[in-house]
Amino acid sequence: xxxxxxxxxxxxxxxxxxxxxxxxxxxxxxxxxxxxxxxxxxxxxxxxxxxxxxxxxxxxxxxxxxxxxxxxxxxxxxxxxxxxxxxxx
Length: 89
Hints:
By secondary structure, this protein is an alpha+beta fold. It is 28% helix and 17% strand.
C-alpha cells in the first residue's frame, strides 16, 4: 500500500475521504482485490466526518513507487491510496 495524504482544503471540488489511485494497477489481475478494498473502505464510519470512496477522482496513483513497483515486480500489487487531510483542524 502506497499511502498519501491530501490537503483537500486547497482543492476546489468535493473530495472523498478515500481515493485509491488505480492508474498503475493491473485491473484485469487485481480487480477483485481493489473491489474488496473499495467495499471495505466504503463501510468506514467516522463520527462527525463524511466518508466516501472514489477511485481516480482527485488522485490517480501515477507516482514513482506505484509505477516502479508495477514494472519491477509484475504480478505484485502496489495500490496507491490518498487520504483526505485538513492540517488546519
